[in-house]
Design goal:
homodimer; 469 residues; alpha/beta; dopa decarboxylase, N-terminal domain; Aspartate Aminotransferase, domain 2; Aspartate Aminotransferase, domain 1; seven-stranded mixed beta sheet; four-stranded antiparallel beta sheet
């Protein structure tokens, strides 16, 4: 492809994206294809010669679109939001165009320094503790691809600290014990497994009726483990769980963690961005106790995936766990101590210039665009809750302080299951099924960039209509 | 930003990228800034209101460009290639515009099915074993972000297999032992550490004069470990090491791995893509013994980072190690066995539609563009070797069958160090220092998309000129 071809096709693709996002409501929210359909519409074997690029773009419509479940659709109320925005898309494009590697400061200084500054800007915008700032004595932040990676990095830093670094040499994880509730994200158990902490050493701490961790139960478990000669090392508090958006009591857990020398990780992947709005800053309560923290602009701030903010108050432990320095990665800048090499803050070596999309988004909209969107989503969720409360067939099964509402039919699990299945099959909205303490529920997650009252109203009408059927 | 603003700024940015890539030679290859310079040119605190987007784009030139080390510069001969191409940039843009999550088949079927097909297309194009194909009885492939993640996934699958899955429950890694040469990538040691295999249980297998693993030495180490009651479980062969591009003997190692029940991972992150050209298909020698394999289109095929192809012949072990199924991720498609959920093939949960950039690249250029580029790079490397051989001050320190040449000054380490430092400081080319069996060497890695004879000639003239000084 020549540069002129790129200009031509690039302009076409930019317009295609604008058309797509402006017209996304015309599509069914969920793809209607069956397994194998998309592959069957493409050649089984690779082309032997170049094709006109117009054919490729045409196949976006012909082949790809039928296989898309539209996360940017305003009636997408499934899983969690993954909202993008126009400035963020341009940030991703700029990063792809520059094509640089940010594994070390020296491999492209701007890639590192813009990222560090964005982490500090977000620390301010979110009102996070000063000790997470890169300019603090012991902390700092980095952009990870996902909260799963942040969780794993946190476990590895904790593992390093509790063993005084011995873990790097001995690999002995057999006495380490971790703690979370049953409501914590699946990435917690997965991260622990990866790090050599088997599920036998993940203690499920009981939760209260609002699905929040019971600190007294945590302390009881920790003490029993200590008495058994084990080494409690890591506890995860979630601020906004995946299933019901429950909030663990961080300060109370933090006091226990301090007393017993546990690393406290706070996972606010979904909800943390809500703290942009002053009235939701309670999301941060207790963070002054956290050793590490993560939240995802790629969920609720219009910065397209992947963009997870990972902060730690103990960068020595993180670097101890993740630094490896072969000769071909040495640099004078790094050895001067004045430059950050982010490869030592993450699992992979390579890294894209992800900070550009965050920078573009913040500058193009200030924090104001995100705050307005967050407020709208929360208000719509409360509106929906009011509507649900007027219908005797439904019940709300968990607190809903932000943008997730979990409902079920009083008629029971199979009725609720059938309702979700039939509603999703219409393509008019998309919800996610979950099971909360044994009972089936329908999660209504309100977080797409363009979701407005009419979409929430239509979703509610759909649920009411199908519940009657 | 309105859709119309996006069209306007998007067109501008597309043109900016074309201008940048067409004019990249005007820049010094390496950024000339000092630590802190880039940050100091930006506001320390976030903006309180939205800014005109034209300002943001202007800051790409004013702030970002001085901090860029130009991986797309034809005189970039440092580290490894990270070449991009116009179709791949458009693929990344399309993925950002669609903004979908590919964690499960059901979350956007096209994201999964195009990826599976691309992995199979690449299996054909590279001439890889059939048992890596998704249509095989036991294998399959997935796009990872980087070879480090592929390495880690391979270690986890091996760990699962050798413990019969017990690892997920007990987390006991204390008897497991892994093997590689000193020339293996730093991601090997890092991946093992993450998985709870300390460096005390990573055996460094001696290598021969060409830096390739000595199979007899491997067998000796494995037998000693077995005799000591340990459990050898994973061996990594590299096809194209980072320091010198050495090639471990996979078939000989594979026979030993089979005999002793080790998982054989083959890391061809840099060189594997060379197998697109039939005359370099020897890179694949012995792969029929491999349990897993990875290579990076983001290094040598014009598909911008991140795009690592990870194949396994034993998907049961991989899924055993990495599957976690909470209620909110269940789906009928997955339970039917007809759909792949790639979240279970990787470390993170979330995933972008990375297959688009591979699809766009293959269709826009066939494999022919990549093959022509690979052949040119290899020929230029051999040409450079011929030139170096005529200069008595230099010596070539390792075999150079492909696109990496390692040279040093006979005058010794400090002379070679000084040469690299002075050459890099000119901004006219960029090389990487390494240490090979104790001796300093200059790596000349020839792999940028537009590198041609005049760039290699100029790099050689630069080295000759500064060696004289």
């Amino acid at each position: 492809m020549t540069p002129d071809d790129f200009r031509l096709h690039g302009h076409t693709l930019i317009d295609w994206i604008a058309d797509y996002l402006e017209g996304v409501e015309q599509y069914p929210v969920a793809s209607q294809v069956q397994p194998g359909d998309i592959r069957a519409s493409l050649p089984e074997h690779p082309p032997t010669a170049a094709e006109p690029f117009a054919n490729v773009l045409a196949d976006l419509d012909r082949v790809v679109m039928p296989g898309i479940t539209h996360w940017q659709h305003p009636s997408f109320m499934a899983y969690f939001p993954g909202n993008s925005s126009y400035p963020a898309i341009l940030g991703e494009l700029a990063a792809a165009g520059l094509g640089v590697q940010g594994m070390s400061w020296v491999t492209s200084p701007a890639c590192t320094e813009v990222e560090t500054l964005m982490m500090d800007w977000m620390q301010e915008l979110l009102g996070l503790p000063e000790r997470f700032r890169s300019t603090s004595a012991t902390g700092g932040g980095v952009i990870h691809g996902s909260a799963s990676e942040a969780t794993l990095a946190s476990i590895l830093a904790a593992r390093w600290r509790v063993t005084g670094g011995d873990i790097n040499h001995t690999g002995d994880t057999t006495r380490l014990v971790a703690y979370s509730t049953s409501q914590a994200h699946s990435g917690i158990e997965k991260g622990l497994r990866i790090a050599g902490i088997g599920t036998e050493h993940l203690r499920i701490v009981p939760h209260d009726a609002s699905f929040a961790m019971l600190p007294a139960e945590l302390e009881r478990l920790v003490e029993a483990d200590v008495a058994a000669g084990l080494t409690p090392f890591w506890v995860c508090c979630t601020r906004g769980t995946t299933s019901t958006m429950a909030f663990d009591p961080v300060a109370a857990v933090g006091a226990i963690a301090q007393r017993h020398g546990l690393w406290l990780h706070v996972d606010a992947a979904m909800s943390g961005i809500g703290a942009l709005a002053p009235e939701f800053r309670w999301i941060n309560d207790g963070l002054e106790f956290a050793d590490s923290y993560c939240t995802n602009p790629h969920k609720w701030m219009g910065v397209n995936f992947d963009c997870d903010l990972f902060y730690t108050a103990d960068r020595t432990a993180l670097l101890g766990a993740l630094s490896i320095l072969p000769e071909y990665l040495r640099s004078a800048a790094a050895e001067s101590g004045k430059a950050i090499d982010y490869r030592d803050w993450q699992i992979p070596l390579g890294r894209r210039f992800r900070a550009l999309k965050l920078w573009f988004t913040i500058r193009a909209g200030g924090a104001d665009d995100a705050i307005a969107m967050i407020r709208r989503h929360v208000a719509l969720t409360q509106q929906l809750a009011d509507w649900v409360a007027t219908d005797d067939r439904f019940q709300i099964v968990a607190p809903h302080p932000l943008n997730l509402l979990c409902v079920r039919l009083k008629a029971g699990d199979s009725a609720t299951d059938a309702l979700i299945e039939r509603a999703n099959a219409t393509g008019r909205a998309l919800f996610t099924r979950t099971v909360i303490d044994g009972a089936v529920a329908c999660r209504v997650s309100i977080g797409a960039r363009t979701t407005d009252e009419r979409h929430v109203r239509a979703a509610w009408e759909l649920l009411k209509e199908l519940a009657a059927g």
